[in-house]
Amino acid sequence: MGDKIRVVVADDQNISRGFFEMYVRASVNYVLAAGLRTAQEAVRYLDEHEADLLILDVMMHDGIDGLTAAAQVKQKHPGVRIILTTSASETSWEAQARAIGVESFWYKEYDDHSLIDLMDRTMAGESVYPGDPPNVPFGKVKRADLTERELDVLRELTGSLTNDEIAANLHISVNTVKRHLQNLMEKTGFENRLELAMNARILGLVVSDRDRAGKIPTDKQETN
Question: What does pTM read for this prediction?
Answer without folding.
Answer: 0.83
